[in-house]
């Protein structure tokens, strides 16, 4: 470096926690929490139900009570009940009232409510930005649709659009693949990968160990305290998983692929009995016609030619 040149300033990390205890009221949920997430990271938080995963995200958005320690997001101290600028949050789909009479566009625009003008409507520019994001995320033309009419993948994309409307640098997602099918899970993951590639810092919670192990570069195991933190190959070990989940788990490796399974097969009583004494199916025993007089009365049958020459309803050809 030439003499006199000032080295470029290193930006503060996206998340910086030190000695944090957090909870609700007087009850502590997380303790001894120290965690640093550099900008541009993609991190998965895993742990059992009740381990504090959602509480951690609420801490980063100012919605959980900090009892002690330091909490900084994007270089600024987090204030109570105040989502930091540059942070986008995507809630669990199960926590949303999908019958609420609101449109896709209105949900997205609510992401701008904190910084919008103090009037009961949104500007034309704000609506244009919202529609541009919906178009980018594959929801173009759906802005006036009611949210209850969306599929699981469309609902996730809608909340991503709302988060991105805040010019998010840090994206927080609570169980983004919960309650969706395998194809949708893959679509959501690919979209998050694209956003991360564009420079967004992504932190998500998940209970899907194999989803995390297969795709994310960093995993944080959490159960009231951080029990492990690092690359999946180093973190997803039987000892670390035992500390995190309180149950024995087996880790299988196939090259670079990691799969977590139960350490022992759960033996169900009925399954074991079926293997010892298989039940042979008797079609006649389960034939409904044995108990339905109409099946034996040609005048009352509806699945073949009737006495009057008309066909029963089962003969109607459907367009598909």
- The overall strand count is 12
The percentage helix is 25-40%
Helix count from the secondary structure assignment: 9
Q: What's the order of the H and E elements?
A: EEEHEEEHHHEHEHEEHHEEH
Taking all residues together, what is the mean pLDDT?
A: 82
Radius of gyration: 27 Å
Shape: globular
Strand percentage, roughly?
15-25%
N- to C-terminal distance: 71 Å
Spatial sequence of strands, sheet with the most strands: 6-7-8-3-9-10
Query: Which stretches are low in confidence, meaning pLDDT under 50 for 5 or more residues running?
Result: 114-119, 293-320
Largest sheet: 6 strands, mixed
Q: Which structural class is indicated by helix and strand composition?
A: alpha/beta
Descriptive notes:
The protein has 320 residues and is of the alpha/beta class. It has a domain at 96-167. Helices cover 26% and strands 24% of the residues. It is built from nine helices and twelve strands. The strands form three sheets. The chain has a six-stranded mixed sheet, sandwiched between helices. Strand 9 and strand 10 form a beta hairpin. The longest helix is centred in the middle third of the chain and has 16 residues, at 182-197. Mean pLDDT is 82; it is low at 114-119 and 293-320.
């Amino acid at each position: 470096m030439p003499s006199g040149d000032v080295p470029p300033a290193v930006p503060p990390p996206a998340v910086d926690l030190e000695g944090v205890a957090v909870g609700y009221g007087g009850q502590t949920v997380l303790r001894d929490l120290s965690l640093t997430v550099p900008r541009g990271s993609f991190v998965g938080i895993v742990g059992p139900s009740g381990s504090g995963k959602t509480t951690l995200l609420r801490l980063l958005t100012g919605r959980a009570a900090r009892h002690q320690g330091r909490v900084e997001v994007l270089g600024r101290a987090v204030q109570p009940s105040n989502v930091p600028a540059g942070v986008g949050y995507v809630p669990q789909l199960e926590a949303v009232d999908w019958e609420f009479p609101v449109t896709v566009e209105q949900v997205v625009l609510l992401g701008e409510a904190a910084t919008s003008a103090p009037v009961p409507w949104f500007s034309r520019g704000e609506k244009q930005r919202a529609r541009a994001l919906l178009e980018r995320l594959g929801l173009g033309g759906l802005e006036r649709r009611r949210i209850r009419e969306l599929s699981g993948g469309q609902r996730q994309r809608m909340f991503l659009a709302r988060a991105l409307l805040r010019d998010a640098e840090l994206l927080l997602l609570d169980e983004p693949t919960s309650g969706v099918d395998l194809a949708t899970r893959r679509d959501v993951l690919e979209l998050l990968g694209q956003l991360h590639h564009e420079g967004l810092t992504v932190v998500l919670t998940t209970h899907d160990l194999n989803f995390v192990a297969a795709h994310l570069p960093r995993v944080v195991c959490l159960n009231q305290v951080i029990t492990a933190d690092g690359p999946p190959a180093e973190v997803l070990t039987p000892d670390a998983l035992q500390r995190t989940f309180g149950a024995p788990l087996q880790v299988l490796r196939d090259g670079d692929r990691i799969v977590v399974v139960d350490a022992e097969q759960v033996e169900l009583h009925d399954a074991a009995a079926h293997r010892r004494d298989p039940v042979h199916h008797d079609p006649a025993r389960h034939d409904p016609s044995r108990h339905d007089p109409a099946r034996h009365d040609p005048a009352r049958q509806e699945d073949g030619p009737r006495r009057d020459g008309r066909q029963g309803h089962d003969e109607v050809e459907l367009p598909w």
